[in-house]
Amino acid sequence: MFWFAVLIPISFILVSLAKASPQAVEDLYSLGVYRYISQPLSKITGVAFLSLGELLFYTFIAWVVLKLFALARALFLKNKELLSKTIAQMIAALSILLFLFVMLWGLNYYRMPLSQFANLDTEDHTAEDLRKLCNYLIKEANSYRDKIKEDSGGVMKLSQNKNITISRAHLGYESISSQYPMLEGNYGKPKIVLGSKLMSYAGIAGIFFPFTIEANVNGDLPEVTLPSTIAHEMAHQRGYAREDEANFISFLACMASPDIEYKYSGTILALIHSINALHGVDKDKALELAEEYNPGLERDLADINAYWKKFEGPIERTSTRLNNTYLKANNQKDGVKSYGRMVDLLLSYYKSKILD
Predict the structure, then answer these.
(1) What is the pTM of this model?
(2) pLDDT tens column, 213-238
(3) Residues in the chain with pLDDT < 50?
(4) Domain of 30?
(5) Is the domain of 208 the same as that of 316?
(6) How many CB atoms neighbour CB 105 within 10 A?
(7) For every residue of 136-175, which 3-state class applies, written as one string?
(8) Which of 78, 110, 142 is the last residue before a domain boundary?
């Protein structure tokens, strides 16, 4: 089984070629091979009510534990045959997984930037531009919030249950696909994972499973963030691997949705990233603008902060470090900080509306 190890250098060679030829990746893989593979596979796995990716993940963890026990047993018994067999099985499995990851989805990390195809010039913007963007998003969020349902605690409540909300996520993508044809596609619907609480402890709102092309979401999230999280994972389904671009695409899809919960959630997503960016360059101005939040918006933002604060700890910090390493290994040199680069796309998108 050691011969499977040849898939490891093949995978790295493919990645090296992709890094050198982003236009070829875009034309041949992301808009070609990937679409032909991902849509049928996503529709097949989408038939299952449960997340197949989640079940496969648990199965893989159990398999790893068993193999580690087998290694320990082989070492204890000094059984060279068992040791060699177990190591070969683990190398073969990891080689196959790496190759499948690269071929099924991973090359999307090296495609052309979304800004070039969406006609968004991500030029440098001033702090004043950022202030105008935040001011605009606050007004939009306040306006949407006045039409949103609340629970008994005065926090946003979805007008329909979570499964219905998920089933309507595709409407925003259908609406924007005429303007952004690279976002069209027929994929399986997102799924709420069984281990949502575990995801929260790991600081994860959603996760895309590339081996099944499934968009998985944490069903335990504050309801105000659920629609934009769903749309974010659907952006990954469409081959946009970068987190900053997936966030921006989520925003576009939410704003194009006929459902006000999606519009509000997308605006909240954009506002959080923008106000955090402004806080980094002009803290006083950011605090001044925060005074413009209406009471409902203020409660929703406080609820989001309170929710994630409950899960702060060693598990969340470890998960963040692992995610940071994963992102850097896949052509996102800023790691988790790359989430903040969404603001450049927002500034370019709103340039003609509020910055000129």
Answers:
(1) 0.90
(2) 999 999 999 999 999 999 999 999 99
(3) 315-316, 318-320, 322-323, 325-327, 329, 335-339
(4) 2-110
(5) yes
(6) 23
(7) HHHHHHHHHHCCCCECCCCCECCCCCHHHHHHCCHHHHHH
(8) 110
